[in-house]
Design goal:
transmembrane; mainly alpha; Microcin C ABC transporter permease YejB; MetI-like fold; MetI-like; about 350 residues
């Protein structure tokens, strides 16, 4: 197993490097970089994309000098444009910029945001509590509900209970998360009916004045609706996966043998079937969590006024804040690759009979 882990760790390097090269190359062809963003703001406070789409005389190209390369730079001296390029590092060739960036990343230096005057790592740490809250609680609730429900559906396969619960979770899966979030706001956050939960934020304004118990209750009071909205679609896949996994195991010969020996149904189900049936479900927990964590829905965060990594990524992409874009891409890409290795280790932990080295051989 040690050799397998070592090989997987060594594969992380070229994989992560490939991810960064592809994304860095693509960004070079995307119009509306940081310099264009500043020019658009100085030339009238408009959006840089108005100039890209076309418009009036204010977005004509200047002939000659540094202005020639930028849309909307009319009236700005070339020296100013060149100073902006030096400040952002665009006076250097793309290859040199990429090598410098990757060299800094190896020392965990992710630079500073172009527009926020804060380091990328501090910015990520600032937004991470929101995303961790959504990802952790959504994953735990999905597992705590879906696993018992899936087992019950497997035991009651074909019954009225199985039919109705399948219909319910499929309908829930079909409802878009943002639509369900709006529905929750309308019903329970003072939209048109009950004012039970707060409308926005992760904590109340008087958070610092609350006791420890008060802070815990306030936190769960605020996080309830966002977590429910982000979890609703996760039940279907996990519940049906659990059910089908149990059904496959229940039909095997060792289950029939256990029943023939006179073991109780609960002993057969939880003493023999559970470990084998839950292999794929439990072992996939790290990947499921990291998936929910990374995909922190920008729509959910916007609806509930939560400032998490989803909004951070979107705002960085719109503003062409390259240090934030590439820094978060590197951090999350590395984390996802490591989590892939942890998922394999979880398989071995749940079932020691699995040997990845012999399978590779």
């Amino acid at each position: 197993m040690g050799a397998y882990i070592l090989r997987r760790l060594l594969l992380v390097i070229p994989t992560l490097l490939g991810i960064m090269i592809i994304n860095f190359t693509l960004v070079q062809f995307v119009p509306g970089g940081p310099v264009e963003q500043i020019i658009a703001q100085m030339e009238g406070g408009g959006d840089v994309f108005e100039g890209i789409a076309g418009g009036g005389g204010d977005i004509e190209r200047q002939t000659g000098g540094a202005n020639e390369r930028y849309v909307g730079a009319r009236g700005l001296p070339p020296e100013f444009i060149e100073e902006l390029e030096r400040e952002f590092g665009f006076d250097k060739p793309p290859l040199e910029r990429f090598l410098t960036m990757m060299g800094n990343y190896l020392t965990l230096d992710f630079g500073q945001s172009y527009f926020r005057s804060i380091s990328v790592i501090d910015l990520v740490l600032e937004k991470m509590p929101v995303s961790i809250s959504l990802g952790l609680w959504s994953t735990l609730i999905a597992y705590l509900v879906s696993i018992p429900l899936g087992i019950r559906k497997a035991v009651k396969d074909g019954s009225t209970f199985d039919t109705w619960t399948s219909g319910t979770i499929i309908v829930a899966y079909a409802i878009p998360g943002f639509l369900f979030a709006i529905l929750l706001l309308v019903l329970f956050a003072g939209g048109s009916y009950w004012q039970i939960f707060p409308l926005r934020g992760l904590t109340s304004d008087n958070w610092d004045q609350l006791s420890l118990v008060g802070k815990v209750l306030d936190y769960f009071w605020h996080i309830t609706l966002p977590v429910v909205a982000s979890t609703i679609s996760a039940f279907a896949t996990l519940t049906l996966l659990t059910k089908n996994s149990f059904l496959d195991e229940i039909k095997k010969h060792y289950v029939m043998t256990a029943r023939a020996k006179g073991l109780s149904e609960s002993r057969v189900l939880y003493g023999h079937v559970f470990r084998n049936a839950m292999l794929i479900v439990i072992a996939g927990f790290p990947a499921v969590f990291i998936g929910v964590f990374f995909s922190g829905s920008i729509i959910i965060e916007t609806i509930f006024s939560l400032d998490g990594l989803g909004r951070l990524g979107f705002e960085a992409a719109v503003a062409r804040d390259y240090p934030v874009i590439f820094g978060t891409l590197f951090i999350f890409g590395l984390m996802s690759l490591v989590v892939g290795i942890l998922s394999d280790l979880m398989y071995v932990l749940v079932d020691p009979r699995i040997d990845f080295e012999s399978r590779e051989g």
